[in-house]
Amino acid sequence: MSLSLLDSLKTYEFGNAPPSPTIPAEDGSQFMSMSFPRRISRLPFAISLFLVLAGSVATSASTSGKRLTANPLSFSFGNIQVGNSLTQHETLTNSGNSTVTISQTTVTGAGFSLYGLSLPLSLNRGQSITFSILFSPRIGGSTSGGIVIVSNASNPHLTIALSGNGIPAGQLTSSAPALNFGSVTVGTSKTLTATLTATGSSAILSSATSNSPEFMLGGISLPKTIAAGQSLSLTLTFTPRASGTASGIISLASNAANTPTIETLTGSGAATPAHSVSLSWTSSPSAVVGYNLYRGAKSGGPYARVNPVLNASTSYTDNSVQAGTTYYYVSTAVNGSGTESTYSNQLQAVIPSP
Asked: Which of 56, 148, 153, 271 could form a disulfide with 66 if both were Cys (CB 3.0 to 4.6 A apart)?
């Protein structure tokens, strides 16, 4: 190569000079250092400077088209009770002019995690990806952290700031952790009430289970949130299926620190009492040999005879009645020839339940 340099006085020719060394720059560009006679010693610096600047411009142009942006740049999760969690969503966008490749993510801060971002990932110009950030505090107190997105963009380490506050779990207590229903007739029910109170922070009552079909919880729809300092009334029911002592436990699951809250329940089933109706009437002034007793389900009849044989006395006990039923009774007198009188006045009998 022949290089000519001209100053105001003379022309210098460089024809077969030895090659000059190539020197790498820190930004990846290269420039050539050239030696010249003392009379033009300033020119190599000008040429070298020109080459260095040209290299720098080329290097900058290779990354200026790759820009990664995050929306938002920070998250505040607020107050989250220990044991609970909150998810928020982050969007990354390639706002440059060429493809950006995301190679790595780093999450810092206790309780923070991300999901929904499979790496490595390439985003074309204008393309976006949304992923989720989860905050699930393990202990109470303020927590801060961040997510660093590593890529080949001009901003290779994009940071998203994270913060949140863990609130210690509250307590859920019962006003009556043990209840005795006493004696309850088989086939009937008895209800008692208890009150649940949340202290420290709010509590979410999520489920209730009973280990006995004779004891049930009612009056509420789950899940149910009980604010700190507030109470919730529970209705507990005992329906014995057999006579004798019964016991059970209702377990109330929640996000409280003392979950589950236990209700211990006891009661006694009493046998269904036998019901009967005792009837009596005045004797007929006529000569009679006996009486018949009739019963109906409606006032005024129709009636059906109750006694299987003629009743010689003026009283009768009906043991075939059913609990919770109302009956209507009349009687007749029968003479020696078998002639039966008209019905007597009607009596009403109401059988209790049970």
From this structure: 153
**Mean pLDDT for the chain overall:** 85
Identify the CA nearest to 250 among candidates 221, 219, 209, 196: 209
Q: Kindly state the average pLDDT of the residues 282-307.
A: 94
Same CATH fold, 171-270 and 68-167? yes
What is the rounded distance in angstroms from the CA atom of residue 16 to the CA atom of residue 43? 19
Helix (H) or strand (E) holding 47: helix 43-64
Superfamily of domain 171-270: Immunoglobulins (2.60.40.10)
Question: Which run of H or E residues covers position 43?
Answer: helix 43-64
For 113, phi and psi rounded to 5 degrees?
-155, 160
- 3-state percent breakdown (helix, strand, coil) of the chain, nearest 5: 5, 50, 40
With left for phi above 0 and alpha for psi between -120 and 50, is residue 83 left, alpha or beta? left
Check whether domain 68-167 has CATH 2.60.40.10, yes or no: yes
Structure-token match 């022949």, residue found: 2
Measured CA angle at 340 (ends 337, 343), to 5 deg: 165
pTM assigned to the model: 0.51
Q: Does domain 277-350 correspond to CATH entry 3.30.930.10?
A: no
**Tell me: the pLDDT tens digits for 3-39?**
333 333 344 444 444 554 544 444 444 444 444 454 4
